[in-house]
Specification:
The complex is a heterodimer of chains A (219) and B (267).
Chain A: H1 5-38, H2 41-72, H3 76-111, H4 119-140, H5 144-152, H6 154-174, H7 179-211
Helix pairs in contact in A: 1-2, 1-3, 1-4, 2-3, 3-7, 4-5, 4-6, 4-7, 5-7, 6-7
Chain B: H1 9-16, E1 21-32, E2 35-46, E3 50-54, H2 61-68, E4 78-86, E5 89-90, H3 98-104, E6 105-108, H4 119-129, H5 136-146, H6 150-153, H7 166-179, E7 184-188, H8 196-209, E8 214-218, H9 222-228, E9 231-236, E10 239-245, H10 246-251, H11 256-262
Classes of the chains: A mainly alpha (219), B alpha/beta (267).
Chain lengths: 219, 267
């Protein structure tokens, strides 16, 4: 009985790479969040610089997955796993972009602090750091239940975005001279809201990988 | 093709019996002496589709295929139970002539086996035995065109079939099979002895042939089954484990044994 040792080793390597990419994206988002809280411009620059590595990881992982499909002709669960790999890397790369945008906004805010609370943005980012970790874990452990539970948390992200939006629009109405600052923060909140959607997409890819069904989590 | 429906009960059933399946088995088992190679097989084959039967060596797939047109009758000690229904008639009924069965349910084998005769005679021999009385040149050309071989052999019809390449010989065997106008073509690993280009040509041919014939193909090549078939049946140790549209079976098999086999975990 043979077990496709080489193929399993390559899959294992892909898992390792996905874990590295997810970890790096989470770290960049955490740095951007801390830069937002503390006004640390150097930390914001670090978060932005880290996005280059994330983009490079996407290319490496996708190339490796494409070679596996071409040379190993996977079917069934193995094929669905590789399809999920392509989806994961695409969404993690976009999440990395949003983390980078947040870091840029944090750097601007350091020069011009926002007089009201940024707690909703901070709570969105904190929640999403945990969601990224759970979504990647769900993929690595083939855990569709964890994927579903993770996707549910996007409701909290959406609620925080809505709350911050109302608050920020109120700020702009009362302080029209600070409209540009207000709009920057509204954009930052929208990036974080979209980031949550991308994590949900990762969770949907995990469900497809495990169960072979396309589902919409969190409509 | 002339049908001697007045005297042959099987031909009569073909003329009058209409069923949803091209071929259907009910509780079909095949034994070699005391060894049961195929166990209680019950399945229906869709008309004018390609069905692949896959499974590891010794799973019973070729034995099952040969049972569909009573080729196992030629094997001493081989016994078949249950029913194989073609147009509602059981091919194993006592009054049925197995030669008539094989006229309707033709077979192409793994190793190309043209007769040691000319290309033309290979096509005409079976037709003449079955009472063909029409235009022979039309039959030869039509059959060779169906097998995508006409252009390559039209100037060599009187040359020996054994002078053709392996891929050409196999296509000649397909032409020979369709010359008697069967309804079903059984193919037992028809490309495993051929090079990749010949294999590809025959796979392309299957797509054309299924417009006219129901095709049941046994293959140990998973990728081939994925490429050519509409439905796939997976057999293991004589049992039918899973039978589904090919896209479903290869993307999301229901049985873990199917998943393990098609993923190469065993076999």
């Amino acid at each position: 009985m043979h077990s496709r040792i080489q193929f399993m080793e390559e899959l294992s390597r892909l898992h390792h790479d996905i874990l590295s990419m997810g970890t790096r994206v989470g770290e960049n988002l955490a740095k951007a969040l801390e830069a937002l809280r503390s006004g640390d411009a150097a930390l914001a620059d670090e978060a932005r610089a880290g996005d280059g590595a994330v983009d490079a990881m996407q290319v490496t992982i996708e190339d490796r997955a494409a070679v596996l499909i071409a040379t190993q002709q996977p079917v069934a669960g193995d094929l669905r796993e590789l399809v999920a790999v392509f989806k994961l890397t695409e969404h993690l790369e976009r999440i990395g972009d949003y983390a980078s945008h947040l870091a840029k906004a944090a750097k601007r805010l350091a020069k011009e602090p926002y007089p009201r609370s940024l707690a909703p943005l901070e709570s969105m980012a904190e929640l999403e750091i945990a969601m990224i970790r759970d979504a990647v874990a769900a993929f690595l452990n083939r855990d569709s239940e964890l994927a579903r539970a993770c996707a549910l948390k996007d409701d909290e992200v959406d609620a925080s975005h809505k709350a911050f939006l109302e608050e920020a629009l109120d700020f702009v109405r009362e302080n029209p001279e600070k409209a540009q600052q207000g709009m920057r923060l509204i954009r930052a909140s929208a990036w974080l809201e979209r980031l949550g959607d991308h994590v949900t997409n990762i969770c949907e890819a995990v469900v497809f990988m495990v169960e072979g069904r396309h589902v919409e989590l969190n409509e | 093709m002339k049908r001697d429906s007045a005297t042959d009960p099987f031909d009569l059933a073909v003329e009058t019996g209409e069923t949803p399946w091209a071929l259907e088995t009910k509780g079909m088992s095949v034994d070699y002496g005391a060894f049961r190679a195929v166990k209680d097989l019950t399945m229906g084959f869709e008309k004018r589709q390609v069905t692949a039967i896959i499974g590891p060596s010794g799973c019973g797939k070729s034995t099952a295929l040969r049972a569909f047109n009573r080729m196992n009758d030629l094997i001493p000690g081989c016994r078949t139970e249950g029913q194989v229904l073609f147009h509602g008639a059981d091919v194993y009924a006592p009054e049925v002539d197995p030669v008539r069965v094989r006229r309707w349910i033709g077979m192409v084998f793994q190793k190309p086996n043209p007769f040691p005769k000319s290309v033309r005679e290979n096509i005409l021999w079976g037709a003449r035995i079955n009472g063909y009385s029409g235009d022979e040149e039309e039959l030869v050309e039509g059959s060779l065109r169906q097998a995508a071989l006409w252009d390559e052999v039209k100037d060599k019809l009187d040359k020996s079939a054994l002078a053709l390449s392996g891929g050409q010989q196999q296509r000649l065997c397909i032409a020979r099979a369709v010359a008697v106008k069967p309804e079903i073509l059984l193919m037992d690993e028809p490309t495993s002895a051929l090079d990749p280009i010949s294999t590809s040509r025959i796979e392309d041919l299957l797509e054309e042939l299924k417009a006219r014939y129901t095709i049941i193909i046994v293959t140990h090549n998973m990728q081939q089954a994925g490429r050519v078939s509409d439905r796939t049946a997976f057999m293991l140790l004589g049992d039918l484990i899973e039978y589904a549209p090919t896209k479903e079976l290869f993307l999301n098999p229901k049985d873990e044994r199917t998943e393990n086999y098609i993923s190469g975990r065993f076999g």
